[in-house]
């Protein structure tokens, strides 16, 4: 009798958006084809086209943090689909209020602020079809930054907390370098070296790879 691998509970695709090439992520429940879009920074028509192409129904909009390139298209996407907005943590409300001003400054005049349907806290869970993701509050880049983790798939969307070979900026209002390092080492690393992550910008990596090679948070760097 031949054993077969179980079908994946979720599937995902990365759709870079805005002039800043932010990694908007479309994730969906493989059984129900119910989808969530994580960090719709802009280019909403292309995101809607991707949903249609894959036969998906948008159920949720998840926001890691309130910066323009991650959240600027949220209001437009909700207006087009009626999807529920979840996230970020309420400490990022002041960033959401600035989205329109930031959009004018960065040449993205269609960006709009929005009202979330649910602020997220550390330890919350968000459901999608017949599956769920865990929420971890990871401040430092912004005070209300959260990440989304699917334990079964060993996949995380970490926004601007961590990148391949780098970490999020901490020079924005209410950013803090030491807090960010604690978020990475205290919230991300315990999830496991095998976890693959989608960063807010640039290529994917794994937590294990970053613990070995990232010049900011590698184990041998932090041990000095």
Strand percent estimate:
25-35%
Helical content (DSSP H or I, runs of 4+): 25-40%
- The CATH topology name reads Metallo-beta-lactamase, Chain A
Order of helices and strands: EEEHEHHEHHEEEEEEHEEHH
Mean pLDDT: 95
Poorly predicted spans: 1-5
Give the number of domains: 1
* Class from secondary-structure proportions: alpha+beta
- Most strands sheet: 6 strands, mixed
> CATH superfamily, called what?
Ribonuclease Z/Hydroxyacylglutathione hydrolase-like
CATH class: Alpha Beta
How would you explain this protein's 3D organization?
The chain has 224 residues and is of the alpha+beta class. It has a single domain (10-222), classed as Metallo-beta-lactamase, Chain A. The chain has 8 helices and 13 strands. The protein has helices spanning 44-53, 68-71, 74-81, 93-97, 99-105, 177-188, 207-213, 219-222, and strands at 10-17, 22-29, 34-38, 57-62, 84-86, 125-128, 131-137, 146-150, 155-159, 162-163, 166-167, 196-199, 205-206. A 6-stranded mixed beta sheet has the order 6-7-8-9-12-13. The chain has a 5-stranded mixed beta sheet with strand order 1-2-3-4-5, with helices on one face.
């Amino acid at each position: 009798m031949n054993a077969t691998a179980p079908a994946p509970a979720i599937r995902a695709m990365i759709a870079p958006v805005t002039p800043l090439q932010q990694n908007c992520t479309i994730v969906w429940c493989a059984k129900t084809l119910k989808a969530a879009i994580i960090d719709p920074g802009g280019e909403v028509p292309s995101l809607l086209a991707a949903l249609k192409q894959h036969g998906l129904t948008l159920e949720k909009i998840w926001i890691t943090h309130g910066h323009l390139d991650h959240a600027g298209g949220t209001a437009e996407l909700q207006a087009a689909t009626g999807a529920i907005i979840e996230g970020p943590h309420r400490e990022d409300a002041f960033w959401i209020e600035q989205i329109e001003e930031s959009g004018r400054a960065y040449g993205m005049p269609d960006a709009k602020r929005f009202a979330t349907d649910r602020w997220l806290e550390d330890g919350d869970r968000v459901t999608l079809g017949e599956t769920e993701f865990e929420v971890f509050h990871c401040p430092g880049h912004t005070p209300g930054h959260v990440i989304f983790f699917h334990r079964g798939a060993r996949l995380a969307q970490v926004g601007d907390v961590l990148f391949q070979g780098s970490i999020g900026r901490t020079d924005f209002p209410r950013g803090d370098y030491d807090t960010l390092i604690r978020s990475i080492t205290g919230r991300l690393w315990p999830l496991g070296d095998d976890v693959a992550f989608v960063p807010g910008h640039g290529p994917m990596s794994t937590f294990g790879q970053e613990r070995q090679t990232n010049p900011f948070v590698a184990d041998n760097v932090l041990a000095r």
